[in-house]
Amino acid sequence: MELKLITANLGKINPSSIDDYLAHGGYRALQRVCDATETVSFTHDLKAAGLVGRGGAAFSTGLKREMAIRAEPTHPYPAPEWIPERYRYSSSFVVCNADESEPGTFKDRLLLEGDPFCIIEAMTITAFLACATVGFIYLRGEYPLAYERLTHALRVARERGYLGKRILRDDFAFDIEIRRGAGAYICGEETALFESIEGKRGEPRAKPPFPTDKGLFQRPTIINNVETFANIPFITLEGAQAYRRYGTKQSPGTRIVCVSGAAQKPGAYEIEMGTPLRYVIEELAGGLKPERTLQAILIGGAAGVFLKPDEIDVPLAFESLDAIGATFGSGAIVVLDDTAKMWGVLLRLARFFRNESCGKCLPCQIGTQRQLEILERMTQGRSRKLEQTDISPEELRLLRDTGAVMRDASLCGLGQTASNAILSAFDKKLIL
Amino acid sequence: MSDVTLTIDGQLTIVPQGATILQAARRLDKQIPTVCYHPHFTPPSLCRVCVVEVENARVLAPACSRIVENGMRVQTDSARVQRARKGLLEMLDSAVDLSDAPEIQAYANAYGAEPARYGAQIKRRAFPLFDDNPFYIRDYTKCIMCWRCVQACGEDAQYTFAIHRAGRGFDAHIATFENVPLPESTCVYCGNCVQACPSGALKPRREYWLEHGLDLKELARVSQLERREKSGDAK
């Protein structure tokens, strides 16, 4: 069911007015954290709340924070000279991943444009608990309005003492800087994002070491998606029990799903975890246009998988999607009706990954190119409606082999998921 | 420093903390093929040919850079590993001219790679020959993008930073900044990159042209001509 937990303020408050935000309960969570005599309980609470990352990987946010807090600073202190002066004295960093580039995903943009102070507050809370003095928002370059609103919000927060030195108490200093992406999908990968902030080529690093050990500038770093951060003030204020009231046992809370494609009312909807996909498409998004039938649903973005029309009753929660071999991913739901040309969609996906591969590791660099070529060969010189029987088994095996190598051997999530959607279309016999 | 106990192919072994899987496996005389790894450079872990299967891990791990952990169980030659290596070498062979890389060819044969599966109408690495300096040529059709030259030029040896990585995806390649000819770059002709190149993409100029049928006299004449042209003495 639709449930406004983290989007409650969207459209209700003036995103450029901190007074409006304060009047709607803003900065109460930060006040609570700053007044607390012990802070361990907040991280325990976050773990108990069962919040997992909303960017796609679904890693426990509480565990991530705990790992970063516990990480031993292995780097010499103060940091070496290649680190810019103003970052050298932060023992850890808080980074907000707002490089939302997964096709079909637009939830972070709405949160940043509609409620920028909430994200800033959540980052400040995290920074206080992790002893960070510098935070970064890595913002997608194509979001000029979000940039303006964030810049404004940061300035106002600084003026009002919610950022900068002595935030709510004498011994807490924290500030946030915005970094704008330049259009690379790969820079949404956390380690590539760090490289980008450090001024290097946006290419992923080998993991481990994980960001919680050696992240930005080789320091322990907490990096979360915008939507994940948006959950933090609520959990901090209300506690784990209150949060667990929503959603399912294994996937508590809510999720913003981004419906696009052939729906009548495409858009972002916040739903309680466990809401059936059918409800989202037919009730919230208004269903298909009259006299159209459902052909397929791409869930989780380009790195997600296709669902067949008869899988539309799956509850949208991590465990139930896992059970049918799908993934929630970034929350993108692309609805394809019978007018969509599946081959065109597959070619487009393959082209996307070919274009966005950074070219660092060989399986992704060559594999994404080969995957596109195989698909192009399959469609070449044939009628628009391609029967599955037209495909030679050798070609299909080659496509599967290429996909398997990319999935097993690639350096980062891009290559590992580049074949997911395409192979799932073949597995589910959606090609006709 | 304490020691770490792990199992490699069912064999219990104890190695010092901080060792990589590759180092641990080599102590047990296990052969793991490597392409981009060079013992003197930071492992970039990008060729992925050295991948091994770590129990309970979602994906395969590069042996060259993964640090061993207590209780780790590693398979260096499982069916999954073999499939990945075969596929990788197939891809590499289908994209790059490996004629000067006997080591990689040997791996490809050993793992039964069939690059011909990808057909003939495929994109391969195509670059003009860069013969812009008296010392070495750059033939990037043979480049496997292992970065060893960039590492040798940069932070792992020379600190010259004359070459870097450019382009993305399949078009990623090694280039000088702004694609200037090498003499206009910061290159000091130390030769470290030539030595590090595993696939013959970087080669001493004289060696290259001798291989391509020029005899020494001809080569001398060509260089003389070039020198004259350069000095503006076009007689």
Structural write-up:
Chain A has 432 residues and is an alpha/beta fold. Chain A has three domains: 227 residues, 3-Layer(aba) Sandwich (Rossmann fold); 84 residues, Ubiquitin-like (UB roll) (Roll); 86 residues, NADH-ubiquinone oxidoreductase 51kDa subunit, iron-sulphur binding domain (de novo design (two linked rop proteins)), CATH 1.20.1440.230. In chain A, the strands form three sheets. Chain A has a five-stranded mixed β-sheet, with helices on both faces. A four-stranded parallel β-sheet of chain A has the order 3-2-1-4, with helices on both faces. In chain A, strand 2, helix 7 and strand 3 form a beta-alpha-beta unit. Chain A starts with 17 loop residues before the first helix and ends in a 5-residue tail after the last helix. Chain B is of the alpha+beta class. Chain B has two domains: 122 residues, Ubiquitin-like (UB roll), CATH 3.10.20; 96 residues, Alpha-Beta Plaits (2-Layer Sandwich). A five-stranded mixed β-sheet of chain B has the order 2-1-5-3-4, with helices on both faces. The longest helix of chain B is centred in the middle third of the chain and has 17 residues. The chains are: A alpha/beta (432), B alpha+beta (235). At the A-B interface, helix 12, helix 13 and helix 14 of A face helix 2 of B.
Name the descriptors.
heterodimer, A: 432 residues, alpha/beta, Rossmann fold, Ubiquitin-like (UB roll), 3 domains, 11 strands, globular, B: 235 residues, alpha+beta, Alpha-Beta Plaits, 2 domains, two-stranded antiparallel sheet, 9 strands, elongated
